[in-house]
Specification:
The structure is a single chain. This protein has 17 helices and 15 strands. By secondary structure, it is an alpha/beta fold. It folds into 2 domains: 177 residues, Aspartate Aminotransferase, domain 1, CATH 3.90.1150.10; 246 residues, 3-Layer(aba) Sandwich (Aspartate Aminotransferase, domain 2), CATH 3.40.640.10. The chain has a 7-stranded mixed sheet with strand order 4-10-9-8-7-5-6, with helices on both faces. Strands 1-2-3-13 form a 4-stranded mixed sheet. Strand 2 and strand 3 form a beta hairpin. Helix 15 crosses helix 17. The chain is globular and about 70 Å long. 44% of the residues are buried. The mean pLDDT is 95. It binds pyridoxal-5'-phosphate. The site of pyridoxal-5'-phosphate (PLP) has 14 residues, from helix 7.
Length: 465
């Protein structure tokens, strides 16, 4: 027997998290978590909940950025992983065709429209996007990629090329050849694609940053323009796939026929990372077009047994627990309940989204005192009001949410689809209570705002040094 005991290690050292990260990993992130009082030590997770070291329960309204649609630590996926380990299967032999990868590919393709019939497996969302960009370039012989404002596709260099949020590119030098298209502007899209030199247009049908819903007819017209100019339509379903928006894939809300899609996040079950790019066989074969090119795009850990087993389990759970419909129903209940608060809290602009992919946006209130307080915090940093909501939601009400991006006062809500009616009611009541505090300009909420302003100004000063 080995003297390495992971359970003992966890029991002995849990709680050192932030010190360890400060010393060995990302000390800046630690500083941010401490500033916004998110420096909790979570010790356990199940379904829609997290528990901290002291046994306090938290409602998880983020699902690990969209990973845990079926809830955390799903018992079936855990059992499937144990079963695969018990089987002592050969894993990553590489010089063979792995069995579980074949089974998962078959199951995945069954969930896709018939024209999407070939899969490439990898290990993360951004890797699946990298595959999409390479396959589009190989299939069209064009090297430029078009993408939309505010789009988000990951942070490796190819994905960063199609990043629609500038702050993430700052400091990283030149990107691949790409063309950014203003969101919602079909004329600009037509102009960009008109030279017939763009390999693909990358879109998220529901954008994750800010949870943007496209204007009526926009996506359908976008697809038409792509077709006209021989540009492939690439729908990134890394976040929106597997039921997050209340359909298997978000492009199905608009009956689109994308040439390439990417998936990841929820297929992992939250246990083993997995990514996949799915496309037409004709596009696929343009990459693997000769026997000496059979490995021209590949990755060591793609197709590994545990990832494939998690993907199979994720699809099974989605069907047997009727999770796609549940995502649509519970998400709509949540949005309706938050929108019903608008009459009470003028600061709420709207709750919007599809299924369990929801953004709650705030805007400047009309009443004089609140308007001045709002302006004062926004002079220091966009989005500070949303931060002033997210912090007490965690601190006082034990609900985990997040501010969506650097611009605009938007809270991102990605609950697990299994969220109960009681938990939706608890979330809405808690939001109501937090916003009630915002009516008092001299109350604790705006005091918190002042402290955040001080921290933001200190950060700006630090940047200028
Ligand atoms: C739409 C979309 N594409 C790609 C990615 C990148 O995925 P990963 O973080 O696994 O690299 C994300 C991550 O949030 C995403 O939301």
């Amino acid at each position: 027997m080995s003297d390495f005991d992971i359970k003992q290690l966890v029991a002995q050292r849990l709680g050192e998290n932030y010190e360890l990260h400060e010393k060995y990993i990302n000390s800046t992130l630690v500083k941010v978590f401490r500033t916004i009082k998110f420096d909790r030590v979570y010790a356990k997770a199940k379904g829609a909940y997290l528990w901290d070291k002291d046994g306090n329960r938290y409602l998880d309204m983020l699902s690990g950025f969209g990973v845990f649609g079926a809830g955390r630590n799903h018992p079936l996926t855990a059992q499937v992983i144990r079963d695969v380990l018990d089987l002592d299967l050969p894993n990553m032999v590489q010089m063979d065709c792995a069995f579980l990868a074949g089974l998962f590919a078959e199951a995945l393709i069954k969930k896709c429209p018939p024209h999407l019939d070939a899969v490439f497996f990898c290990n993360s969302g951004t890797e699946s996007v990298e595959a999409a960009l390479k396959f589009a370039r190989a299939a069209t012989g064009r090297s430029k990629i078009a993408y939309l404002d505010h789009g988000w596709h990951g942070l490796t260099l190819g994905s960063l090329t199609i990043m629609g949020n500038d702050e993430f590119r700052e400091g990283f030098g030149d990107m691949l050849p790409g063309h950014r298209v203003p969101y919602g502007d079909l004329e600009a899209l037509e102009k960009t694609l008109s030279k017939n030199d763009i390999a693909c247009l990358a879109i998220e049908c529901v954008q994750g940053k800010g949870v943007r819903i496209p204007p009526d007819g926009y996506l359908e017209a976008t697809q038409q323009i792509c077709r006209k100019h021989g540009t492939l339509l690439f729908c990134d379903e890394v976040q929106t796939g597997l039921g997050r928006t209340g359909k298997m894939f978000s492009f199905q809300h608009w009956n689109l026929e994308p040439d390439i899609i990417t998936v990841s996040k929820a297929f992992s079950g939250g246990y083993v990372p997995v990514g996949a790019m799915i496309t037409r066989r004709a596009i696929y074969q343009k990459v693997f077009n000769r026997m000496d090119r059979c490995w021209v795009h590949s990755t060591t850990f793609g197709r590994n047994n545990l990832a494939m087993a998690c993907g199979l389990a994720a699809l099974h759970i989605l069907d047997t627990e009727n999770l796609i419909e549940r995502s649509a129903v519970q998400g709509q209940k949540l949005m309706d309940a938050v929108n019903a608060l608008k009459s009470k809290h003028e600061v709420i602009l709207e709750a919007r989204g599809k299924g369990c992919m929801i953004g709650i946006e705030f805007h400047q209130p009309k009443s004089l005192g609140l308007k001045l307080a709002w302006k004062a915090v926004h002079a220091a940093h966009d989005g500070l009001f949303a931060q002033m909501v997210v912090m007490p939601l965690l601190d006082k009400h034990h609900i985990l949410t997040q501010v969506s991006g650097n611009h605009g006062d938007i809270i991102r809500i990605l609950p697990p689809f299994i969220i109960s009616d009681e938990d939706i009611a608890y979330f809405v009541k808690s939001l109501d209570t937090v916003l009630e505090d915002s009516h008092q300009v001299t109350g604790p909420m705006w005091e918190l705002g002042k402290n955040l302003v001080k921290a933001a100004l200190a950060n700006k000063a630090g940047k200028q040094q």
